[in-house]
Records
---
Amino acid sequence: MQKKLNKIAKDTNLFLKKFINKQKKSELIIPMKYGLFSGGKKIRSKILIDIGTLFDLNYKSLIMVGSAIECIHAYSLIHDDLPCMDNDSIRRGKASTHIKFGESTAVLAGNSLLTMAFEILSNKDLKIPEKTKIDLINKISESSGHLGIAGGQYLDLSFEHKKVSKSKIIEMEIKKTGKLFSFCCVAPLILKRKNKKEIKKFENIGSDIGLLFQVADDLIDHRGSLFIAGKKTAKDKKRGKATLISLLGYKNTIKYANKLILKINNKLIKYGSKSKNLSETLEYILNRNK
Ligand code: GRG
């Protein structure tokens, strides 16, 4: 698993470096690269490739789509660390982008990474029909906006120090984290021009993967260490964050996560051995320590 993840991370970074190097230079390139290349597991690209494997899709196109996803992900992390959001000074074991370059630069580098995702998906080297490009851009925009990452982040901040129901926590986590995973799961079906019903099915699988990912992230915060996680831990309790652990307790949260894995795997049975990579990724997501 780690070997496959490393290869995907290497290929994604290579594409992104070439893409950025082809552009005219600007002062924002250095903080953008800092946010984009300062580590990162590239787990979203791995999910995209795993689902792409179910449909025998071209690896190079998937790496390009994955690179767009990683730009949005890097943007969300830069903004998440800002003082007006989660106010974190360490990310991936290094100083957060705003600590290194200042707040206004971090905001602008983040915005530039968001728009770079659209540049990647609309660029001529991505050799897919125009209609498919538009559908991909439409879906990734929806996943990032008020019904997706930004909306989820809003809920996350507004729930601090409040008693929040399980369904509200799940809604927040699916938006904040799940929507981008849903895009990873749906993009291969858009590339294959699959019908709406099939797309919906994979959108739901993505929501469950996102939920699993977020639960695992909360578990790391609960029991992890800064040295291994590369970011401060034990923050959620201090900040009064609404998480499933705060509501269900540690053991029940692990049970909940295992049930999610079972649910996702059951939906993949029809793909036989082709779904092995994805099942492996799900185990990795739950058992990771960073
Ligand atoms: C609209 C894109 C956008 C952002 C603005 C700040 C914000 C709104 C949203 C924050 C969303 C967020 C940071 C969700 C948490 C998701 C999460 C657990 C991220 C950690 O992902 P990893 O572990 O990170 O994959 P690495 O470092 O491996 O890349």
---
Amino acid sequence: MSTGLQVDSAGRLRHFLDVAGLKRQQLVEIMDTAESFSEVADRSIKKVPLLRGKTVVNLFFEASTRTRTTFELAAKRLSADILNLDVSTSATTKGESLLDTLRNLEAMHADMFVVRHAESGAAHFVARHAAPHVGVINAGDGCHAHPTQAMLDMFTIRRVKGEFTPLTVAIVGDILHSRVARSQIHALNTLGVRAVRVIAPQTLLPPQIEQLGVEVHHDIHEGVRDADVIITLRLQRERMDGRLLPSKHEYFQLYGLTETNLATAKADAIVMHPGPINRGVELDSGTADGPRSVILQQVTHGIAIRMAVISMVMAAHTGETTE
Ligand code: CP
């Protein structure tokens, strides 16, 4: 579904909606482009003129700290103009449809929509209905996909570990409701890691998750044993229907990442989390702030990855290169 909509006949990224369906080379190109942009952060004037005169609109219909702000910084560092639509005070609260909102923003000559929405498929819907000159980036849709998060996670892993093929990656937590986990699993398998494990109680795993190419574990000590990378995930209570867990305290006892259960991982294993973190629920403070944690590096890398994706999608619409 995604590939036809997001990649044009020349293989360029017209929209960035999902990691699923993209080829290894396309994921590597995103990371290589991000690598070339990461030095912009070290300049005294943190800007390149690539997207001067272009307008990017952040359309966030769901709460966000990291994704919204790093998209904003990424667009600014590319010299684009950026609008942050405040959905709580926008005309959608007066009954205006999403399509009418889009048409009005297009009438203001928007060139790109960055969309976060609680409904799975929302960014695809926007991409299908946007004007042909407008690129769309998925900033997280329901439980479905969060492709720029997955790519900044891959970029972080590549920066620390170098190669993907020898790696065992363990993802711990609420897989059932996690758009991040779905996108990470697709990206890790496409990049050819040795193994992807998911660790969760049965109630927080989607049915037939094995079909995505993962090993399932219910015991965290076994799940993280000899792992190179451990990704912890937040319990997404806003998406939970009914009681899937006994209590946060009991969840932490069984599935929280601590120095004790981390001891079974490789000595140089890294700890990741897409944020927001809940200390004492999915991991303890010693682990979140400890020497193996790359959680804040993930946030920094989000800017370069989003600069890469914005510039690549914009280039597919203008025929220019990202160089
Ligand atoms: N990781 C992530 O998507 O964080 P935000 O919800 O703060 O954007």
